[in-house]
Amino acid sequence: MKTTRSTAKPVHKPAFANGDDIQIPVFTLLKPDGTLYAGAGQSSLERDTARRLYRAMLYTRVLDERMMAAQRQGRLSFYMQCTGEEAAVVGATAALDDADMIMAQYREQGALAYRGFTTEAFMDQLFGNQGDPAHGRQMPIHYGSRELYYLTISSPLATQIPQATGYAYGQKLAGQGHCTLAIFGEGAASEGDFHAALNMASVHKVPVIFLCRNNGYAISTPVTEQFAGDGVAARAFGYRMQSIRVDGNDALAVYEATREARRLAVEENEPVLIEAMTYRLAAHSSSDDPSGYRSKKEEEAWRKKDPLRRLQRWLLDLGWWEEAEEQELVESLRREVLDTMKRAEKRRPPALETLVTDVYAEVPPALREQFDELVAHVRRHPEAYPRSAPWLDADQADDALQDDPSAHDGEARP
Amino acid sequence: MSRMNLLQAINNALDTAMAADPRVLCFGEDVGVFGGVFRATSHLQEKYGRERCFNTPLVEQGIVGFANGLAAQGSVPVAEIQFADYIFPAFDQIVNESAKFRYRSGSLFDVGGLTIRAPYGGGIAGGHYHSQSPEAYFAHTPGLTVVVPRNPHQAKGLLLASIRSPDPVIFFEPKRLYRAAVGEVPDEDYQLPLRQAEVIKAGEDITLLAWGAQLEVVEQAAEMAEEAGISCEIIDLRTIVPWDVETVASSVLKTGRLVVSHEAPLTGGFAAEIAATIQSRCFLYLESPIARVTGLDTPFPLTLEKEYMPGPLKVFEAIQQTMDF
């Protein structure tokens, strides 16, 4: 039995290797000004997809601006922006089949925007109200959508990466030609789960694409303190996996790289690692202040590489987009986000019973007992529980009316 | 004495430990230049250099494994896990390694110098993954010491004692109180005893037992009870394991009643262990069943966090029911 793939001849002096002889280039098509590099061939991105892609990037930018402002006004407990990384996230999503699975980290709302997650769905999750399918159990930005093939976000880092390998192995067995895209940051790629995921994907020939958003920072920790090797892309070689480094602010390049990665995954059962080189223009989250660990000058340099401007220029040059159209769209998106937010803020909180449902498929008797005690307690002290006490009777009415769809319009009731 | 919040007291304890012993190292995610996401390690890198206070890659199992190795070598690592909710990738290193290093080698090797710090607990709108109280998982592992402070003065003295303890310690910090709890803290180097509970208020009718941030809640409930004419004795357990059975048992022998409260879920929570031991020690003296006021047997929620939490009203009702039994 051979114990390695190597066919190198034996040597008779110690020969060490650290991989420095392997240089991984950055694949890029659009220059920062949005014109094509001389060597860039014909793009396979078609007009309708290109417009959909750019629209989702714009939507994400508008959503992030509005919701960060709302957080600053104290209307929202927490928020995370995708700003600066829209091309990496949306470009990759656009290259997939809409029924391919996406398992993201938490900064990938652009993928949902591309797939048509509604503003109402965004707002209901952000405000944790009755319309949120996860019943306000998770912090804002922990979206999920079964119909859009987007796994509900989990805050612990990197846990979704080996899950993506497993999910994709199941997709391979199902034989319907689908794959899974795992998206994560370069910080998360330090977790053991990342390495386990890549190794298993390679060993079992799984149709999975690992997309690392190398955005320079894991909260405050710069990449120089995260790894000593050549980024994340080089790690694939240790697992004999296909790997590519792409300009993450170039939506066109991300699209083309992911399209080819998908072909390798689905047609040849070759997992692929994509490292998208980008920059987190915003703070890590609304709880973070980057002025403590990076310079304004550095941020400004990256602001000039804005992925939106770059793709916009390309679209304008092709005549596939118009400036006036953009102005109108941005204004209408802002209005839509604001109006929907106002409605979502007013929707009632999730029913008290959602505290104990979904823990198990059925509520166990001991937990049912805890819940009954809680209900009795809330009834004795309604003033202390303004989020649930006013609705206790309405909840019971809901149970009684559950066959009547009009009773579940989700709007606030007196 | 200086007025400090709980974070400043932690920072001061780390500073004191690093100044007193060059073998003390502080590291974890974002603890270097930035001083940690909560700023518990502020200025330590500036003062003691990058060799002794540094950022690690984002890998909890690596952080604790690395810390185990350092401790085995004779260094005194103080590893930060950014949130207690994120300690689980390191569970193997803690449960199978830290806890058993000494036992499996017959004291040839030990990791007694190890301290793992992690912010725990709810009340900050953190949802499932920024709110949990995982002390019971670790309390089930012989070999570990688990410590939880309730205020700035306790935090500094207990953390210094933990760092210098001959056993590995997990030090859970009540993050809800990081900035909210402010008090007088001695400037000098001092330690408070591990494995010793503290009676923080004497009373006659009922014993209330808690730890960390939950003491604030229990104190509010005790005030309501006192208004209703019930005299409460309040005990801070401080060290979860190995725990101070004597202090709790002697209080319950006096009052005949016990309410234990924690944020973690009821089933398998540390209150269960306390109730079992105390009923066996104090059976003939108990006037009523030992009551537990805890989180629900569910993951930690967000919008309905207040309903989940064992707040003062729930503790007060448990006191009343215990008195009226």
Helix content of chain B: 25-40%
Shape of chain A: globular
Q: Unreliable segments of chain B (pLDDT under 50, ≥5 consecutive)?
A: none
Could you tell me the radius of gyration of chain A in angstroms? 24 Å
Based on CA atoms alone, the radius of gyration of chain B comes out at 19 Å
Mean pLDDT over the full residue set of chain B? 98
**Largest chain-chain contact?**
A-B, 52 and 42 residues
Strand content of chain B: 15-25%
The number of helices of chain B is: 12
* Total count of strands of chain B: 14
Distance between the termini of chain A: 74 Å
Number of domains of chain B: 2
Corresponding CATH architecture of the largest domain in chain A: 3-Layer(aba) Sandwich
Given helix and strand content, the structural type of chain B is alpha/beta
| Largest beta sheet: strand ordering of chain B | 3-2-4-5-7-6-12
Task: Explain the layout of strands and helices.
The complex is a heterodimer of chains A (414) and B (325).
Chain A: E1 26-27, H1 47-72, H2 86-94, E2 101-103, H3 109-115, H4 119-126, H5 160-174, E3 180-185, H6 192-203, E4 208-214, E5 217-218, E6 221-222, E7 242-247, H7 251-268, E8 272-277, H8 296-303, H9 307-318, H10 323-346, H11 365-380, H12 392-400
Helix pairs in contact in A: 1-2, 1-3, 1-9, 1-10, 2-3, 2-7, 4-10, 5-6
Chain B: E1 2-5, H1 6-20, E2 24-28, H2 44-48, E3 53-55, H3 60-73, E4 76-80, H4 91-97, H5 101-105, E5 115-120, H6 135-139, E6 145-147, H7 152-164, E7 169-174, E8 182-185, E9 198-201, E10 206-210, H8 214-227, E11 232-236, E12 239-241, H9 245-255, E13 258-265, H10 270-282, E14 291-295, H11 305-308, H12 312-324
Parallel strand pairs in B: 2-3, 2-4, 4-5, 5-7, 6-7, 10-11, 10-13, 13-14
Antiparallel strand pairs in B: 1-8, 6-12, 9-11
Helix pairs in contact in B: 1-7, 3-4, 8-12, 9-10
